[in-house]
Amino acid sequence: MGLTRYASTKVGMTDIFYVEKTSPKDLVIALAGNPNTGKSTVFNALTGLHQHTGNWPGKTVANARGNYSHRDKNFILVDLPGTYSLLASSVEEQIARDFICFGRPDATVVVADATCLERNLNLILQVIELTDNVVVCVNLIDEAKKKKIEIDILKLQLELGVPVVGTAARSGVGLKDLLDAVYNVSTGKVKTSPKRVLYPEDIESLLEKVIPEIDGYVNNTILARWLALRFIDGDKTIIESIKNYMADFDDTNKEKAGGLIN
Ligand SMILES: Nc1nc2c(ncn2[C@@H]2O[C@H](COP(=O)(O)OP(=O)(O)O)[C@@H](O)[C@H]2O)c(=O)[nH]1
Ligand SMILES: [Mg+2]
Question: Best mutation site among 34, 36, 175 for ligand 1, i.e. most ligand atoms within 8 A of its Cβ?
């Protein structure tokens, strides 16, 4: 029966992903990015005074959530810890990964630094590997301009297959376009076609064997591929997260998943 219950409601998730909504129609947006890309600046510009901060449950990592409205919708923005990757090698990376993976936000915005885009692409590609609903916010375009760096936003959008918006968040430039892009992706008005990394043949053929083992329990082919990649990678933290966050993943399945890793 897979994870239908989990996927269609948020029942069964532990506190860490609990996002309080004022209406079931509220949309949850995750804000990811490398440290110092302007994530908090974007967060503050969009949510203003409508925010609250604390720690992630059980962790000493800061957690900020806030609300904003755009057109006919209310959005809840969750500021994830700044990370360079989602490979869960630190508690920050694990929170960011698990929120995107198991918290199932309606869209994820990846804030990137226009002055060193290449370094930021690592995280962007990892997020795209995990979910379709991604908007890339290339921030600090004012700084890039000063350094004579020009970003071809449309080309980047074509290459990635998800909407890309250029912003200078500190001065509010491009935020309206960002709001529109987030609205369109999270409401499904715009369908993305993310370009996913294709791995060497030996890995792809392993994936073909592992994915069907997982498919029955994960009602989402992207997630199945991503989980299979983690299993092949030998990532044991993902087993812990599955046990914690996938309510319908019963003991037999957990053992099976554990077996795949060994
Ligand atoms: N010039 C410029 N500075 C920015 C912009 N966005 C953020 N900053 C500055 O970059 C620094 C890091 O921003 P912050 O929002 O704290 O980054 P975070 O670590 O990703 O949350 C701060 O000094 C911001 O004022 C921008 O678009 N242009
Ligand atoms: Mg910050």
Answer: 36
Rounded to whole angstroms, how far apart are CA atoms 253 and 25? 32
Find out whether 212 and 224 touch, Cβ atoms under 8 Å: no
* Cα gap 186→108, rounded to integer Å: 9
Report the alpha-carbon distance of residue 29 to residue 32 in Å, rounded.
10
Residue 197 C-alpha to ligand 2 middle, in angstroms? 28
Pocket of ligand 1, candidates 34, 39, 41, 145: which has the most ligand atoms within 8 Å of its Cβ, to mutate? Answer: 41
Mean confidence (pLDDT) of the chain = 86
Question: The whole model's pTM is what?
Answer: 0.88
Positive or negative: CA dihedral 232, 238, 239, 245:
negative
- Return the pLDDT at 102: 83
| pLDDT of the residue at 15 | 59
Q: What is the mean pLDDT of residues 85-92?
A: 87
* Mean pLDDT score, 53-65: 87
Catalogue all structural domains in the chain, each as residue range(s) with its CATH number: 13-186 (3.40.50.300), 201-261 (no CATH)
Taking alpha carbons only, the member of 223, 225, 213, 217 closest to residue 250 is: 217
